[in-house]
TrEMBL record:
The lineage of its organism: Bacteria, Bacillati, Actinomycetota, Coriobacteriia, Eggerthellales. This is Type II toxin-antitoxin system RelB/DinJ family antitoxin.
Length: 98
């Protein structure tokens, strides 16, 4: 089958990111373009990127609450050793599980 050259304008950052993904899956830009044309011919519409699942703000706030430590930065008890503060915060959380 004869082939032809296609030229397209794509933002550089998008192209570079896509080339990294293509390399990771063992494909080339030509493979991607051919797959897009195959999809278009089979479905008669453009492929649409899947939208990420919307998470309610409330669940994100719960996630932050569970994955962060409250540190009283204005407290005079702070020694400047953040690792000690984190150890203390983790210790307190682990004790609450017992």
């Amino acid at each position: 089958m004869a082939s032809s050259l296609i030229s397209a304008r794509v933002p550089t950052a998008k192209r570079e990111a896509a080339q990294g993904v293509l390399a990771a899956v063992g494909a080339t830009t030509s493979d991607l373009v051919n797959s897009a044309f195959d999809y278009l011919l089979a479905t008669k519409h453009l492929p649409q990127a899947e939208q990420p699942e919307d998470r309610p703000t409330e669940s994100f706030a719960q996630f932050l609450g569970k994955s962060t430590l409250d540190i009283p930065w204005e407290s005079s008890e702070l020694s400047g050793d953040y690792r000690k503060l984190i150890r203390g915060g983790k210790h307190t959380r682990y004790e609450s599980l017992a």
